[in-house]
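Support request, please re-run this one:
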Amino acid sequence: MEATLGENLRSLRLSRNIDQKTVAERAGVSLKALKNLEGGHGSTLKTLVSVLRAYGREEWLGSVAPVATINPLTVVRGPELRQRARPKILKLPPNSVRHTS
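Re-run finished. Output below.
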């Protein structure tokens, strides 16, 4: 995934005919950080966001992290599970007789 993302960013930069040094300066990141990002060798989220902003392509983040459609706070909780269980004791009236088979 990192390699594909890096290739896409590199292709975008080359299609705009911009060198790495210029992009790094516009993004406010080091040249080494940009090279790592484009090479798929890992980078920070901050570097990725800064480079996308420098390209004016923040909308790419929507495809990486889509908006959640389910809010976990609205999910109805099920019944709480008991942590311990005691055996239920069958209480019979004092004058009753038990039948065993």
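Helices lie at 2-15, 20-27, 31-39, 45-55, 60-64. The longest helix spans residues 2-15.
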